[in-house]
Amino acid sequence: MITVIISARNPIPDSTLERNIKKTVGSELELFMINNSDGENGLAAVYNFGAGNSHGDILVFMHDDVFFMTENWGPILESLFAQDPTLGIVGAAGSQYIYNNKCSLTAAGRPFIKGRIIHDLQNGDFFATMFSPQKEDAQVVACHGLFFAVRRTLLTQFGFDEKTFDSFYFHDLDFCMQARRQWKIMVTGDIVVKHRSIGTYNKQWQHYGDLFLKKWASELPASCADTVPDPANIINATQAHLKGKFEQRTIA
């Protein structure tokens, strides 16, 4: 069974998000849409609460403005975890290299950043952020927190650090740093999600980024790549405009 855990700012019964998950999952599903409308609890605390009450063999943590564009994504996850007993986390985007002085997940640039995310924004913009140019499955050291799936065994060993990361930033990278000590982390090109917003990189984000760098100073830089990024020649992700080329309809 797959458990989906979401911190919901505006939980609505039978919402488009709920219908999207149920219609696309293709596996037995347990869904926790946890009410966090007042924003009192950070994502780490909400995720720990949800995980502690879950029953699934695979736990999916995702934002409340993320929708699946891939149908039958549940069997895809089940197959990936079944094929590799050392696989602990699967995400849609991530990086093979995290610096010891740059907290951004994408700071290493191509070819170290992997995956892609579709953005379908409220203003009508519709584009893909292409971390890597090709569709692929790739090992990474950390994945983007907008969507990631976790083998239950991990959560019997450790949880999210809700004391340090008590807001909405860096709980994902911190969780991956814990996991990578023992487990493999990967990005898959077979599950496509769309995000109805873009990231916010403000003073609060930088504050928690600094906490992340300080906490993991002895284990950074972290890498699963064969080479080291050249800071003087960073190649950033590219954007491919999709409006008018692909249907923007949300499966629901």
Characterization of this structure:
The protein has 252 residues and is of the alpha+beta class. Helices cover 22% and strands 27% of the residues. The strands form 3 sheets. It has a 7-stranded mixed β-sheet, with helices on both faces. The longest helix is centred in the last third of the chain and has 13 residues, at 203-215.
Unreliable runs:
none
Number of helices: 6
N-to-C terminal Cα separation, in Å?
21 Å
Q: Please state the structural category.
A: alpha+beta
What is the element string, with H for helices and E for strands? EHEHEEHEEEEEEEEHHEEHEE
Q: Any idea what the radius of gyration is?
A: 17 Å
Largest sheet: 7 strands, mixed
- Average pLDDT for all residues: 95
Sheet with the most strands: spatial strand order: 2-1-3-12-5-13-10
The coarse silhouette is globular
The amount of helix comes to 10-25%
Relative strand content: 25-35%
The counted number of beta strands is 16
Summarize the structure.
This protein is of the alpha+beta class and 252 residues long.
How does the SSE layout of this entry go?
Layout: E1 2-8, H1 16-24, E2 29-35, H2 43-52, E3 58-62, E4 66-68, H3 73-83, E5 87-91, E6 93-95, E7 97-98, E8 113-120, E9 126-130, E10 138-140, E11 142-143, E12 147-151, H4 152-155, H5 171-179, E13 184-187, E14 193-195, H6 203-215, E15 222-223, E16 238-241
Question: Keywords for this structure?
Answer:
single chain, 252 residues, alpha+beta, seven-stranded mixed beta sheet, 22% helix
